[in-house]
Amino acid sequence: MTAQADMVYGTVVLVPARNEEVGVFTSLESLARQSRRPDLIIVVVNNSTDRTEEYALQFAHDERTPPTVVLNFPDNPHKKAGALNHGLAWLRNAVGGRLDGRVGHILVMDADTELHPKFIERARNVIASDPEVGGVSAACFGRTDLWRNPWQRYLLGMQIIEYGRAARARYRTDVHTMSGAGSFYRAEALQGLIDWRGEVFWEDHRNLVEDYETTLALKESGWKVTANELCIAYTDLMPTLRELTQQRERWSRGTVDALRQRGWTKFTWHSITTMILGLFGFAYIFIWGARQLLAAAQYTVSTHPLLLLLLAFWVLYPAMRVRSLGWKAMLVEALILPELVYTVVRAYWMVSSILKSYVTRVSAWK
């Protein structure tokens, strides 16, 4: 189908998809099940070598689905940012050159993501509640039962807990970054970025985290960004340690690169401080905290009640932080050891990402 210049779209969805033949149909189906359906879906098949385009076209040709355009972008030199800008350029051309006035909202979602059926309806309500809000980030949760052994089950379980904690922090404190899994933007805000710098998503080979860089750009141009606990996105998790490490190193490395490029500002100081405190936290756990925990476990109430209180804190506090995920997650956190092992993994990709940002060139990820 083709868009018409005289059309007005309440919500347009952009779905960049690179080698996502496994999940793209499920992601698009979650858009068809929305309580408030999108007026247009744009799938940008980005440097794919599998059957992603075929499955996206199959969805587009189904008369029961929302109007869908599939754009093939086989020679994209600018990673996901280039795919998103390609979709936005097509949309701008289709509606007469500008997004504001013709498009109300633009939802950007990954092709391995499944949205809650009321996501669009709820995100529109959040945007409508404050004219200064330029974007609403999803609260992301992990989805998968694809595990083949106890190690994979442990790895996926820890990611589920990690996503759950991050989702809670996202809507209760500060939005560090709009989630790539699901970000709902006011079209006026994105048009403002185009007017300001010529593009929404920064097309540079160094940009590994287009969602974080765009979040900073929105804040710098005067817009608020927020998150809502009811705007839920379910995203795939990494089934192996190698894939998990590669993913998180890319995210962390991209964040460090963006912070170094901008320096200390009123929009970056919180992220920089959080990263530094995180490194101190890792040092505390590995050097002093583990020794405290071991000492506390060796004594009884009658001899060292304060150490027992410390042990109780180490057990109860992590468990209470994940109570919204259910008793299984609380039990895993209360056991302490599973989280300590996963903390070692997190520390590795954090430290390696910082070092790589300073001493190595950006990878060729697309």
Describe this structure in words.
The chain is an alpha/beta fold. The chain has two domains: 231 residues, Spore Coat Polysaccharide Biosynthesis Protein SpsA, Chain A, CATH 3.90.550.10; 89 residues, no CATH class. The chain has twelve helices and eight strands. Helix 8 packs across helix 12 and helix 9 packs across helix 10. The radius of gyration is 22 Å and the shape is globular. It starts with 8 loop residues before the first strand and ends in a 7-residue tail after the last helix. The mean pLDDT is 87.
Q: What key attributes describe this structure?
A:
Spore Coat Polysaccharide Biosynthesis Protein SpsA, Chain A, 8 strands, single chain, 8-stranded mixed sheet, 12 helices, glycosyltransferase, 2 domains, globular, alpha/beta, 366 residues, 16% strand
Give a nutshell description of this structure.
With 366 residues, the protein is α/β, with parallel strands linked by helices.
User: In percent, how helical is the residue content?
Assistant: 40-55%
Instruction: Label the structural class.
Output: alpha/beta
Tally of alpha and pi helices: 12
Task: Report the oligomer.
Answer: single chain
Order of helices and strands: EHEHEHEEHEHEHHEHHHHH
Form type: globular
Query: How many separate domains?
Result: 2
CATH topology value of the largest domain: Spore Coat Polysaccharide Biosynthesis Protein SpsA, Chain A
Which parts are unreliable, with pLDDT below 50 for 5 consecutive residues or more? none
The appropriate CATH architecture of the largest domain is: Alpha-Beta Complex
CATH class of the largest domain: Alpha Beta
